[in-house]
Design goal:
The chain has about 325 residues and is of the alpha+beta class. It has 8 helices and 15 strands. It is globular, with a radius of gyration of 20 Å. The structure holds 2,5-anhydro-1,6-di-O-phosphono-D-mannitol and magnesium ion.
Length: about 325
């Protein structure tokens, strides 16, 4: 018998008391929003009538426009789905400059939602997997009005996190701090169905993911790690490695949760002032928690990502995550350096 997302959440609450009804509502609303983003993504160029909804669309630059439109559409879908339910105080998104406080006409809850509405958006026009990443925090003081300061909590304070990958299948992956579960969208039923529980990442791997075109800009520890992998059986690692780079973090992390591997988007010399490319609040924190909950590890080379105290909403961070032993190795190359 198949178990829907709703049933899973209700049973988790009954068995472990981890998902208060407000949080359950929040997660169901996020899942519903992901369902409609999935439909928009599936339509691709056929969905161009959506351009009218978004205002002017330069038809001469369809691919660039579709990509941009879908980013905005996904952002709007998430905002509209979530703002009226009474479970949220505010939202923050990779696509918005500042936080979106729930308007006065709706009741305010105590949760905070952060998201990257469409991660990997450079892949939209080439029909490669993309996804939505989300993270949930609780307001620091329930009796005070919400501000950006409420969002400045480390990843360890997350109460739920997940992503939805829009690939050959649409899969929602979720943690509430008690392991990782995967739900596949059943389009005939219109619901997410539990397809894997207790997801585990093997501690060892022979697969790495990094954008190799940046090699000349890397720092010594990253160079050393990749050089050793490339030397294969003849090198210090004594085994051959394989490489994958999808350029959609959701798709790369999904592969790692499925069969292991190590993913890196490290700091590099192209823009030395930037800590990395990926964003702490919308990408690194939720993915790091999922990976840790599946038995993997995640660091910025110096420290556990979940322990980083954020200072800015759109803060960037260097990311090394996946199979525990590999992440520990890369991290030790950094700390020794
Ligand atoms: P985005 O949120 O603007 O889509 O950027 C994040 C993406 C990640 O999904 C992916 O890992 C990375 O950027 C790819 O970057 P690059 O094109 O430099 O390889
Ligand atoms: Mg992104």
């Amino acid at each position: 018998m198949s178990i829907s997302l709703t049933r899973y959440l209700v049973e988790q609450q009954r068995a472990k008391g981890r998902i208060p009804s407000e949080l359950r509502l929040l997660l169901e609303v996020v899942a519903r929003a992901c369902k409609s983003i999935s439909h928009a993504v599936n339509k691709g160029a056929l969905g161009s009538e959506l351009g009218d909804v978004m205002g002017s669309a330069g038809s001469e630059n369809v691919q660039g426009e579709v990509q941009k439109k879908l980013d905005i559409i996904a952002n709007d879908v998430l905002i509209e789905a979530n703002e009226w339910g009474g479970h949220l105080a505010a939202m923050a998104s990779e696509e918005m400059d500042s936080i979106h406080v729930v308007p006065n006409r709706y009741p305010q809850g105590e949760y905070l939602l952060m998201f990257d509405p469409l991660d990997g958006s450079s892949n939209i026009d080439v029909n490669v997997s993309i996804g939505t990443i989300f993270s949930v925090l609780k307001k620091v003081d329930p009796n005070k009005g919400v501000s950006e300061d409420d969002f400045m909590q480390p990843g360890t304070a997350q109460v739920a996190a997940g992503y939805c990958v829009y690939g050959p299948q649409t899969t929602l992956v979720l943690t509430v701090g008690d392991g990782v579960a995967m739900f596949t969208l059943d389009r005939e039923q219109g619901s997410f169905v539990l397809t894997q529980e207790n997801v585990r990442i093997p501690a060892d791997t022979k697969e790495f993911a990094i954008n190799m075109s940046n090699m000349r800009h890397w720092d010594e520890p990253v160079k050393r790690y990749i050089d050793e992998c490339l030397l294969g059986e003849e090198g210090p690692r004594g085994k051959n490695f394989n490489m994958r780079w999808i350029a959609s973090m959701v798709a790369d992390v999904h592969r790692i949760l499925t069969r292991g591997g190590v993913f890196m988007y490290p700091w590099d010399k192209r823009e030395p002032g930037k800590a990395g490319k990926l964003r702490l609040m919308y990408e690194a924190n939720p993915m790091s928690w999922l990976v840790e909950q599946a038995g993997g590890a995640s660091t910025n080379g110096q420290q556990r990502i979940l322990d980083i105290q954020p200072t800015q909403l759109h803060q960037r961070v260097s990311v090394i995550l996946g199979s525990k032993n590999e992440v520990e190795r890369v991290t030790s190359y950094h700390t020794k350096a």
